[in-house]
Amino acid sequence: MPSQPTQNFDVALIGGGVMSATLGAFIKQLEPEWSIGLFENLDQAGLESSGPWNNAGTGHAALCELNYAPAGKDGSVDPAKAIGINEQFQVSRQFYAHMVAQGLIGPPKTFINPLAHMSFVMGDAHAQYLRARYESLSAQPLFEKMQHTEDLSTINEWAPLVAEGRDPSVRVAASRVEAGTDVDFGSLTRQLTSYLGVAGAELNFGHRVTGLERSGNGWQLTVKNRATGAKRAVNAKFVFVGAGGGALHLLQASGIAEAKGFGGFPVSGQFLRCTNEEIISRHHAKVYGQASVGAPPMSVPHLDTRFVDGKRSLMFGPYGGFSPKFLKTGSYLDLVASVRPHNLVPMLAVAKDNTSLVKYLVTEVLKSRAKKDEALREYYPAGEGSDWELITAGQRVQVIKKDARKGGVLQFGTEVITSADGTLSGLLGASPGASTAAPIMIELLNRCFPQQFSGWESKLKEIIPSYGAKLNENPLLLAEVTAATDKVLELA
C-alpha cells in the first residue's frame, strides 16, 4: 500500500512520450489552471518509442511511405488513406508552429528540418505500381508537387547513393516530394515536457505507475519511486495512458470494459547506422522502398537521413525481429502477462492467420550480418558493411483486437481506447503514431471532455488555423497555411 500522503490532480499523464507531452501541452493551452501530474518510469522524457533511434525519427505524411497507398486488385491506387495521414500531419505541423511562435519550445531546427521524401522501387511490377501511385496522388492538392521518374540519371541527382553502381538494365522508378521533413521526436517531446514543467505541471521521472483503479468519480494510481522503492497514491479526475508498449497492461488493470478483447503483438528490430561522415554528407533524403512479402508495414526498408540532437546522420533498415518485451526497457514476461481470457481467442486467431509474418520474423532473426549488408546494397549498391554499425531499435506492440468474422485481427495503426464515462483513455499501436499526435489528441479531448470542448474550439482555431477544414479540399487555405507554417518552422 502507498506509504505517502495522497496527491490529487485534475489530469494524470502516464508515460513521458510524445503523446502525453502533446496532450499535456494542449490542456495547458486550453485550461491553464488544471493541475497535471506526469509519471515516467525512465529518467527523462522521450526515451522509448519517441526516441529517434527507436523508429520515430520522421515526419510521416504519406509522401514516400508506400504502404499508405496500396494498389487494388485492378492495379489502381486509392489516395484516401494517404490524404488522411497527410491531413493529420498538417495539423501536427501547425501545432509545432504555434508552440514555436509563442516561445513555448525552442528554435525549429532543434526538432524539425526540411528533407526530401522519396520512394524508390525496382522491377517492372513495382515501377508500374509507383507510376499508378504518382498519378493518383499528384492529382490531389496535398501531393501536387510530387515528382516522378524512371531515369537513373535523375535519380542520381535526387539521391546519388541509390543510383551509383546500379545495373542500368534493371527497371527502376522513383517519386519525390522536396517539401518533406525530418522530426526528432525525442527532442520535441523533451521540449514539450519542459514547457509543461514551466507551466506548472508536476514532472515525475523515475516513477512507475504500478496500479490503476477507480476511485470515486476518477482514478487512483499507485506510483512507485524507482530509486527509493517508496510508493504513493495519486488521485486524478482524468487519466491518459500514453505509456507506449506499457499501455496495454495498465488499461487491462483498470478493468474498463472497452479494453477487453485487446491484445498486443510485439515486434522489435535493428538498423544499420552509418559511421562514415563522407557518405552521410552525400545523402539528403528519406528513401523508402517496398516491404517484403509478409513483412509488417513498420518494416519497410528505408535509407534515411536523420537529424538527431542537431547532428546529421544516416541509417538503413529496419531488420525485423522478435522479443516478448512490450518496451525496450520492459520485461521478457510482458507478452505472457498480457494474455487474459477475454483476449485469448483474438490472439490465437491472429497467430493462425499471420503465419507469413511469423516466417518473416524468424527469417529476419536468423539473418547474418553479411545478409544484412546485402539488403543495404539493394538500396545503396556501393555500400560497404565496414561503414555501418548495427543498432537495436525500439519495440512496437501491434494491436490485436476482436473481430466478429475472424475472431481476431492484427492492426497496423493506432487505437484510442476510452472508458464510457470519458475519465480514462489510452493509446495502443504504432505507425504513423508520433507524426499524428496532435490530431489524435484533439480527437481524444473531444471524446473525453464533450461538455468543455465546444468552449475550447476558438482556442483550437488559434492553435490550428485549419481546424475544422480539410486542406485537400481547400487549395487556397492549404497554400495560406503551408506558407505561414513553413515560415515559422523555417522550412521554406
Automatic annotation (TrEMBL):
GO molecular function, a single term: L-malate dehydrogenase (quinone) activity
Alphabetical keyword list: FAD, Flavoprotein, Oxidoreductase, Tricarboxylic acid cycle
Cofactor: FAD
A biological-process GO annotation: tricarboxylic acid cycle
Signal peptide span: none
Keyword match Secreted: no
Top-level lineage group: Bacteria
UniProt pathway annotation: Carbohydrate metabolism; tricarboxylic acid cycle; oxaloacetate from (S)-malate (quinone route): step 1/1
This protein's record includes keyword Oxidoreductase: yes
EC number: 1.1.5.4
Catalyzed chemical reaction(s): (S)-malate + a quinone = a quinol + oxaloacetate
Protein family: Belongs to the MQO family.
Annotated NCBIfam families: mal_quin_oxido, PRK05257.1-1, PRK05257.1-4, PRK05257.2-1, PRK05257.2-5, PRK05257.3-1, PRK05257.3-2, PRK13339.1
UniProt-recorded name of the protein: Probable malate:quinone oxidoreductase
Source species of the chain: Zafaria cholistanensis
Lineage of producing organism: Bacteria, Bacillati, Actinomycetota, Actinomycetes, Micrococcales
Gene from which this protein is expressed: mqo2
